[in-house]
Amino acid sequence: MSGANPQTLIGMGAYLLAMIAIGLWYARRSNSNLEEYFLAKRSFGPWVAAISAEASDMSGWLLMGLPGVAYFTGLGEAFWTALGLFIGTWINWALVAKRLRSYSQIADNAITLPEFFSKRFHDKKRILLAIAAIISLVFFSIYVGAQFITFGKLFSNLFGANQVVMVILGAVLVMLYTLLGGFWAVGMTDLIQGLLMVTALVLVLAFGIVHAGGFAGVAENLKNFPHFLDFFGTAAPKMADGAQSVVNGVPVFSGEGTKYSLLTIISTMAWGLGYFGMPQVLVRFMAINKTSNIRRSRNIAVIWCFIAQLAAVGIGLVGRALNPASFGTGSDSESIFILLSQGFFPPLLAGIVISGILAASMSSSDSYMLIVSSSLANDIFKDIFKKDASEALVMWVARLTMLLVTVFGVIIAVSGNQSIFRVVSYAWAGLGASFGPLILFSLFWKRTTFPAAVAGVLSGGIMVALWKNVIAKLGGIFDVYELLPAFVISSLVIFLVSLATKQPGPEIEAEFEQAKTAEF
Hints:
Layout: H1 6-30, H2 34-39, H3 46-73, H4 75-106, H5 113-120, H6 127-159, H7 163-211, H8 214-222, E1 233-237, E2 239-240, E3 243-244, E4 246-247, E5 250-251, E6 253-259, H9 262-269, H10 279-287, H11 294-322, H12 330-333, H13 336-344, H14 347-385, H15 391-414, H16 420-444, H17 450-469, H18 483-500, H19 506-517
Antiparallel strand pairs: 1-6, 2-3, 4-5
Helix pairs in contact: 1-7, 1-14, 3-4, 3-7, 3-10, 3-11, 3-14, 3-16, 4-9, 4-10, 4-11, 4-19, 5-6, 6-7, 6-14, 6-15, 6-16, 6-17, 7-11, 7-13, 7-14, 7-15, 8-11, 13-14, 14-15, 16-17, 16-18, 17-18
């Protein structure tokens, strides 16, 4: 604990205790039945639905990963990534939210995304349900690991504590309030955490701009770093012995930089496609209390997303202007938010501001853990292996699953010093390409068939792994974010297989037509 004032720890500790208290408060309410535990009985108001969706979506990536990218290589990649996510957020709320809210209830009151797919296509053998649940398990476990990496980096940076110990401690705390309080605890804590995240980002950016001498001062400090403020390229740090070279306190960049082609820009903005397949966001659509509240939720979510991402990118740029040589690698650069917070605020206030990172990670990891546990307990254990299981037994299976996912996430987090940004990007691609195309086809094309749904989910997930680990290594036009080609291929597979297979039955088509105009 040599690296920070004890008051900083007090501020963070108070925040953690408050989150656990909320979990305990909602434990009584959440444990009444499965729909209450996994979907809060579809009773989220517009603020809870909107802020919890965005907070769970952005994760520790927002306060550490995105500023880290902007700090290390400049404006280009961070800007186009943020823009793609902003556009994806707006389209997802505008296009998907209302239809999914209605259709999930019409489809025999589906309470998880895999269950919705299964009931939407009348999957009597639960094949699609099992595949979707397993894909959720794989990629969300990676996601959980990324959040635990955030815990480790945060506490080891602040207090000089052992990173493995801090990963385990953070994992236990998140598991505790999620396990006790279910989706109500997740939603209400995410509301608080989302508000804290955006407040912390805006405060740190505002103080940073003032310390740098205003916008002109920031630009003046960065102008000597080649291509650092380019929209159509990135700066290229000159590396030596695994870290950026520094001469007389000034970081060294290659004069050439990295140019962005139109394909690269499209590839980077393809992050936005992932929203259509993100269960942690889609389940909030399903949990909204009234379809008439969706427009208000959308406005809240889009404004939050714009402010938060603008501030996150700005913090990376301001951080480089104020502390040009503090971090020598992309992974280390993800601590710039922590460094600025400690420098700007008194220790106790710094602890509260830095709790924004905890808020980001906790709001995501709790959602991921609950989604995975609901998929295995409700979708696989209850629907496939033990259809007569009591609701109490299913909830205990969910809690056991949550424990196993936590352990797996810890193993991922301590396996190496990985970049949060890169770990999240892979899991985001996997979920986005597996589920995104099918969500769109399920909601908006009546001709979509069950075989096409199975083929689409499998092709999307497999293509992400294949493109990332094999095809992208060919370079050139193949060196694009794996979400883009996998999403396109999955969409083509769904379309072509649907045309080649038997048209859905009249009952499925009737439900589709009902969902188009239903209000709840």
